[in-house]
């Protein structure tokens, strides 16, 4: 049986629905087609497999490898995070998905006794290396591959979570070598005469903001939509707040816990923590009574600091102690414990069609609450999460981020904030996303109003990016449309991996024009623009028409200037869908303006715009010699970006 068919059958047996399985198969066909094209064109070596957080990217990687093996490809490398859990999770899944193929981990190629086995597997059929993104490990793999495999082999390399660790963190430091992991990846890739490097992530903001030609910006994109059982940002942050899974907690509560000042323990613990824990006990108990005898999880994430994790561990355990006492032996605590659980039960009555009686739910909580498993997951506790009892409470920070799947996660308490939050980082904290439709009405996400607003903005920015990726080629994705509220410093990614000196930022409600326009296509522009000259107000036109105009004007780029001809064209292209291909045009002639002037529009003309749409103002300068010009008229553009929260970051192509 071929690898593709075998893995398909395995996914079907695992409960993947037929429509979702077909989608994974179609994605593998699309990606392999792009891979073949890239192998025949050495200039296009980078691709992006673009999914959503916890949407099944690993299954898509495995299916793509299986399809390529069936078509004669022999060498595959899968790179993943240096996170011990994520590496082990990925290695196990690839080994399980490709059972007829030699899949080897980082301990194998460094073991002398395994080398002959690897050579045999490669010679007889194919080999897959799964490596963590660690400099020492990558260097050992490169050394092993160079000693065993010819440089003429067409290697297919997958970089899972490609926006993490792989990029050069010295991008903005002059005369400094690339960062260690970035350099190690480049060394591995450079060994092969021809290869394809497929980046895999749900958060490609930093990848799209790389300059073209730097070796880590995708040349092609294969986006895929998750299956029907998937719940993501639209479910959590796209619905009406009152009808969804969001439960708001006091704004200052997470910081109070972090500061460890004036917080009570036991049943008097902070309100949001208590509500989250009680909701978890109620939800998991109802699930069990309805026939699901499985372990369930609750996640608490407010800080990366280990001291805070210990405070939370004490907080949760002290709550458990008094809750258990109140439910069993302590008559003073009993009414308080019952009241808190009743409140959580009443909340679920609102969202569930049928529920067991409160007494039945209470009996089950009493029977199983003593076995509640409370775990801290951080670098001091590097083991995989142990989710084995009915009630499992996980506390952590960075290790609960990207890639790690938490099965049967019903309740999340999230209170982690940052002065300058990054879209890709915060989005990777959304561990509640995933194939959880069967748990839809049981899910709860406890957070502050501010963080809810942040996640909502990030969801909107992410949705805009996905629309752009599905509709455009990577060449039209040099301008990334993002969403920013007035009260946050939301950034697309971390600054140290993007070329800040080459990035242009275009803000909403702001005008831009070139300081050094060049005389170009005046006669053609006259024909296009003269019908608009005598109009008192801006005229509605298609954005396509504005783009046509922008293709006819030219300017010289000078240091420190925001204007860039290509940037404006690409931004307009990426506005078409968002603004229904609607823009506005305003034109005036006989403007006698000095060359190099830092102001362009008259006071009255600066007020001529439609705030909800892009407005292009075109001035025809007289081009007077006494103003520094050559005596010939010249058309000069001035564009006003729409009002609102949308802004663009642009990297040159």
Question: Please, could you describe this protein's structure?
Answer:
This protein has 653 residues and is α/β, with parallel strands linked by helices. The chain has three domains: 3-223, P-loop containing nucleotide triphosphate hydrolases (Rossmann fold), CATH 3.40.50.300; 230-459, no CATH class; 503-650, no CATH class. It has a seven-stranded parallel β-sheet with strand order 3-4-2-5-6-1-7, sandwiched between helices. Strands 9-15-13-10-12-11 form a six-stranded parallel β-sheet. Strands 18-24-23-22-20 form a five-stranded mixed β-sheet. α8 links the parallel β5 (155-160) and β6 (195-201). α1 runs antiparallel to α3 (57-70). The two termini are 45 Å apart.
Main sheet makeup = 7 strands, parallel
Beta-strand residue fraction: 15-25%
What is the domain total for the residues? 3
The number of helices is: 20
Overall pLDDT:
87
Strand order of the largest sheet: 3-4-2-5-6-1-7
- pLDDT below 50 for ≥5 consecutive residues: which ranges? none
What global shape is seen?
globular
Output the structural class: alpha/beta
**Distance N terminus to C terminus?**
45 Å
Question: How many individual β-strands?
Answer: 25
Helicity range: 25-40%
Radius of gyration: 29 Å
């Amino acid at each position: 049986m071929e690898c593709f068919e075998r893995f398909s059958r395995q996914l079907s047996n695992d409960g993947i629905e037929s429509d979702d399985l077909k989608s994974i198969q179609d994605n593998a066909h699309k990606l392999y087609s792009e891979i073949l094209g890239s192998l025949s064109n050495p200039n296009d070596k980078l691709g992006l497999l673009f999914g959503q957080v916890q949407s099944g990217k690993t299954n898509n990687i495995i299916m793509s490898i299986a399809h390529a093996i069936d078509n004669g490809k022999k060498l595959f490398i899968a790179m993943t995070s240096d996170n011990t859990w994520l590496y082990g999770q990925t290695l196990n899944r690839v080994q399980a998905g490709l059972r007829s193929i030699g899949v080897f981990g980082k301990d194998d190629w460094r073991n002398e006794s395994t080398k002959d086995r690897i050579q045999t597997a490669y010679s007889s059929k194919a080999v897959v290396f799964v490596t963590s993104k660690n400099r020492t490990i990558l260097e050992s793999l490169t050394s092993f591959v160079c000693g065993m495999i010819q440089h003429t082999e067409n290697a297919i390399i997958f970089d899972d979570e490609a926006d993490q660790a792989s990029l050069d963190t010295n991008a903005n430091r002059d005369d400094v070598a690339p960062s260690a992991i970035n350099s190690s990846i480049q060394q591995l890739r450079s060994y092969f005469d021809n290869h394809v490097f497929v980046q895999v992530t749900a958060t490609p903001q930093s990848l799209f903001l790389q300059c073209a030609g730097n070796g880590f910006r995708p040349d092609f994109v294969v986006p895929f939509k998750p299956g029907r059982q998937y719940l993501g940002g639209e479910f959590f942050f796209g619905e009406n707040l009152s009808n969804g899974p969001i439960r708001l907690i006091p704004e200052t509560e997470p910081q109070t816990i972090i500061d460890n000042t004036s917080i009570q323990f036991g049943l008097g613990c902070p309100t949001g923590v208590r509500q989250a824990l009680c909701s978890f006990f109620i939800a998991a108990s109802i699930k069990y009574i309805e026939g699901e005898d499985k372990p369930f999880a609750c996640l608490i994430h407010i800080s990366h600091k280990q001291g805070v994790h210990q405070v939370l561990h004490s907080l949760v355990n002290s709550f458990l102690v008094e809750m258990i006492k109140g439910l069993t032996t302590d008559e003073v605590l009993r009414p308080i414990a019952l009241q808190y659980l009743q409140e959580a039960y009443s909340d679920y009555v609102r969202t569930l069609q049928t529920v067991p009686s409160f007494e039945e739910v209470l009996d089950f909580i009493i029977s199983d609450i003593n076995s509640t498993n409370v775990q801290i997951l951080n670098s001091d506790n590097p083991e995989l999460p142990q989710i084995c009892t009915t009630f499992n409470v996980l506390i952590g920070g960075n290790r609960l981020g990207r890639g790690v799947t938490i099965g049967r996660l019903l309740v999340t308490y999230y209170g982690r904030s940052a002065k300058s939050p990054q879209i890709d980082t915060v989005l990777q904290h959304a561990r509640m996303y995933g194939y959880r439709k069967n748990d839809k009405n049981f899910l709860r996400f406890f957070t502050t109003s501010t963080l809810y607003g942040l996640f909502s903005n990030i969801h909107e920015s992410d949705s805009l990016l996905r629309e752009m990726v599905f509709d455009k080629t990577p060449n039209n994705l040099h301008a990334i449309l993002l969403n920013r509220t007035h009260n946050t410093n939301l950034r697309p990614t971390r600054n140290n991996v993007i070329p800040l000196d080459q990035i242009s930022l275009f803000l909403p409600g702001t005008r831009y024009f070139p300081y050094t326009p060049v005389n170009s296509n005046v006669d053609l522009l006259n024909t296009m623009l003269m019908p608009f000259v005598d109009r008192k107000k801006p005229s509605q036109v298609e954005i396509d028409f504005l783009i046509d105009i922008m293709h006819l004007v030219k300017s010289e780029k000078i240091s420190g200037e925001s204007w860039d001809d290509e940037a404006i064209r690409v931004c307009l292209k990426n506005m078409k869908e968002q603004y229904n291909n609607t823009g506005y045009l305003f034109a005036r002639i006989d403007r006698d303006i000095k060359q190099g002037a830092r102001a362009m529009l008259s006071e009255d003309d600066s007020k001529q715009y439609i705030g909800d749409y892009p407005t292009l103002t075109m001035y025809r300068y007289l081009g007077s010699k006494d103003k520094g010009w050559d005596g010939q008229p010249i058309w000069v553009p001035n564009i006003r970006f729409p009002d609102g929260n949308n802004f663009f970051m642009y990297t040159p192509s």
